[in-house]
RNA sequence: GCCAAUGUGGCUCAGUGGUAGAGCAAAUCUUUCGUAAAGAUUAGGUCGUGGGUUCGAUUCCCACCAUUGGCUCCA
């Protein structure tokens, strides 16, 4: 058995343990389901009284006591009648029983100690021994069967490991993730803030803007190399555009709109596509113009439900690094190759690992079957050629075309959906866009939609957590801070600052009348990559003593060499 | 939108049915200092917003707003 399976069984058993303890403490609670998940387990319960976090330690204690009576799991097959009799007061379990019966599967009960539960199995052979350490982590609401039409149940999350040490490591990791929270770091590093008058819409501070601008400059530079042309389209347009694109029908409830001059209804764009298509349509296009790669760093606005905003990860206004490629059908392959290469280039700039998922034709697809087959084959071939592992998401494509989704992995191993690359055969029809082919006839191009960074806001949130705020030199809002030891060193410091700034380095000087230790501490907490200490010795040598934010002492360095060192770091994106 | 929790000076947090404190940050002064926090003084809050109960509400109740952990949603 793999370690993964072992953990899964152990946690599944821990979920039963949780249920058993809850039943002892709150006998009228109705059990529903309780699976193992990647990081632990949960159990969804229907309590007669609301539960709070304060109740968790009590439940943990009961779990520990119960575990002592759990030597092993035994199971038995039961009839539908028996099962329903057992759960005569539990409509959730009866619903599950009906489903199992309908599927023609056997009904089994698993028992450990004196706790028995409807279960398909998959438990630790020796729960008492295997569940070495467990902890209940949080309490949350969850809909029965995941549908908001159903009753809200109480979900208790927990985690379990064979060894106490492993549990502790996991908890340390959670602590570490908390320290890296971009909302916390955003405030501490003075990058941005939120306030109630603009929910889900960040106020960017000067230092945050440097991150944005560097990020976009990097993206622009690469896109230029790949033949993109940048455009910018209105944030607000008459809703007739969105009626034509279909957004008004399908997405209206998530769109902001506003009345203009009493009789015109304007909508804030929730996506850039309609606008960019207007640019395409603004003149007659020849096959010689294709592929036309239009990029836009467009501001999109979407209403989000109140409970789902989450710092920079989920905002109501976002800037997307959007692009639309207008290509002839037979040039799709080539366009995709370029795109996949570009995606890899951009992610590589941040040292982020990624996985690419190919989403294939859904049941409600539009267009011709053979076009889909070809498009999927094309995407697959392009992924293969780029050396990407092909992970499939069957039937998960958009109705207008198949897509590749990119998931980034950050330094804590968490994954984030960022880039997406979608083939679209539908929008060209809807907007009736054409090009004149070499034979003089009008033909329909294909559109490839893509974002790589995704939303700039979200990406900066991810980068902040990935680097724990210690941005690489090229991104760091302040790259160098000079620390004069006494006031008489400021003059020399200013000369160094001038040199650095003239070379485009973001350098500052801490002229406060604080002790050196305090200045080092503050610069370290601000995660400034380089500190340059200036005292009498440095002035004599016409050099600065360089300390890195991780504490490494680089000793005295002449200003010119220091400049080179920084520029090297910037160029290598370290 | 749903379940649960939270909202006190810029930040982190304490506290109370009789109109509020601490540390850090800030300002001023002293100090001019060698690799992660010098010292003193001062200033700063109608306790998220609106209603209600009460002689009196930051504290109790209701509504709303925002945030957090989840669920759902993300065409």
Q: Could you characterize what this model shows?
A:
By secondary structure, the protein is of the alpha+beta class. The protein folds into three domains: 3-174, Threonyl-trna Synthetase, Chain A, domain 2 (Threonyl-tRNA Synthetase, Chain A, domain 2, 2-Layer Sandwich); 208-233 and 286-466, BirA Bifunctional Protein, domain 2 (2-Layer Sandwich), CATH 3.30.930; 480-571, 3-Layer(aba) Sandwich (Rossmann fold), CATH 3.40.50.800. Helix content is 37%, strand content 26%. The chain contains 19 helices and 28 strands. Strands 11-15-16-23-20-19-17-18 form an eight-stranded mixed beta sheet. Strands 1, 2, 3, 7 and 8 form a five-stranded antiparallel beta sheet that branches. The longest helix is centred in the N-terminal third of the chain and has 23 residues, at 3-25. The model has no long low-confidence stretch (mean pLDDT 91).
Summary, kept brief:
This protein is of the alpha+beta class and 574 residues long. The protein folds into three domains: 3-174, Threonyl-tRNA Synthetase, Chain A, domain 2 (2-Layer Sandwich); 208-233 and 286-466, BirA Bifunctional Protein, domain 2, CATH 3.30.930.10; 480-571, Rossmann fold (3-Layer(aba) Sandwich). The chain has 19 helices and 28 strands.
CATH architecture of the largest domain: 2-Layer Sandwich
Q: What is the highest CATH level, the class of the largest domain?
A: Alpha Beta
- Percent helix: 25-40%
Mean pLDDT over all positions: 91
Q: What is the C-alpha radius of gyration, as a whole number of Å?
A: 29 Å
Spatial shape:
globular
Q: In percent, how much strand structure appears in the residues?
A: 25-35%
Main beta sheet: strand number and arrangement? 8 strands, mixed
In the sheet with the most strands, the strands line up as: 11-15-16-23-20-19-17-18
Straight-line distance between termini: 41 Å
Low-confidence sequence ranges: none
Q: How many structural domains in the coordinates?
A: 3
Q: Quick one: how many beta strands?
A: 28
CATH fold name of the largest domain: BirA Bifunctional Protein, domain 2
CATH superfamily of the largest domain: Bira Bifunctional Protein, Domain 2
Number of helices: 19
